[in-house]
Amino acid sequence: MDILITGGTGFIGSLLVPVLAGADDRDQGDRLTLLTRHPERAAARHASLVARGRVRLIRSLDELGRDEAFDAVINLAGEGIADRPWTAQRRRELHASRIVLTESLGDWMRRARHKPSVLISGSAVGWYGDQGNRLLEEEAAADTGAYTHRLCDDWEKAALAAAPEGTRVCILRTGVVIGPGGGLLRRLLPLFGLGLGGPVGSGEQYVSWVSLSDVVQVILRLLTDRELRGVFNLTGPRPVTNAEFAQTLAGLLRRPALLRVPTSVLRLTMGDMSALLLDSQRALPSRLLQLRYNFLHPTLEDALRWTLSRRG
Ligand SMILES: NC(=O)c1ccc[n+]([C@@H]2O[C@H](COP(=O)([O-])OP(=O)(O)OC[C@H]3O[C@@H](n4cnc5c(N)ncnc54)[C@H](OP(=O)(O)O)[C@@H]3O)[C@@H](O)[C@H]2O)c1
């Protein structure tokens, strides 16, 4: 397949790109075009795939002509939601890097002579907002006041609007991705490793997590199964409370998880962004379970053990 990927240079891309491009296989693999603001950096990272013609790097969609033919588009680009406080300027950056970019992708797809058969586009369980211990299947209603809802909802709508007629759209409402070298865990490990980790707030809020290798396997399935379209909760089958998360991680590291960070301290230090740690989403991957998708890491402990075993 020829696949165009935005956001392929990030944490999810770190496993997705080599798997799709067939890094371990000289004969098999897709041909990938990655949109990135830093092509030199990406070229150094994927030097052998670039040399073998499996990965091409572009800085702008303007580099794509009308005759360029992609079978699929995977759209993951976005400024890090947890990287900086949500000032008005930062909200504009979070919005532009997802929604404006998705709209540009739509402009290109409309111009292209050959339309991709599928658009797989990102979103997050933050779409649901703060929902306590309610079980959230894909058709659950959202807490529409949450900023994460508005950002994800605009992103989902932009993806649906961007797809030309006849292009399947699959939306990934992704949970906290657990894997080596990135994501939330990269920030937590130094603290938990020193025995300074613990639950945040009441600890009763739910964390919907998913292993990076399951994210990649699900994307592979969505690329090839022509029956699949619409929204998918891309989360593990057993979400945990924040306190269980802290205990499981600390237990695997053989450290205590006693230091609770009070809600008031989080609100004071993180402002609105504290919602990322305090809001509760107990999402269930109902559609993946209906498809009998076999999770590689069905429990948080499996996902954490796998991650810790691959830590460099
Ligand atoms: N990791 C998670 O736990 C998680 C959970 C739910 C949803 N998601 C969503 O899934 C997507 C991928 O996640 P990730 O963890 O792989 O992200 P990541 O490591 O932060 O990587 C972000 C990607 O987006 C691109 N990007 C960032 N800002 C951009 C901008 N202003 N314009 C164009 N491209 C930009 C980056 O490309 P360059 O720097 O190369 O240009 C990079 O490839 C993100 O949109 C994220 O919100 C992630």
TrEMBL record:
Domain NAD-dependent epimerase/dehydratase per the UniProt entry, residue ranges: 3-233
Domain DUF1731 stretches: 261-306
Domain of life (superkingdom): Bacteria
InterPro entries per record: DUF1731, Epimerase_deHydtase, NAD(P)-bd_dom_sf, SDR39U1
Recorded family membership: Belongs to the NAD(P)-dependent epimerase/dehydratase family. SDR39U1 subfamily.
NCBIfam families noted in UniProt: yfcH (TIGR01777)
Protein name listed in UniProt: TIGR01777 family protein
Organism name: Amnimonas aquatica
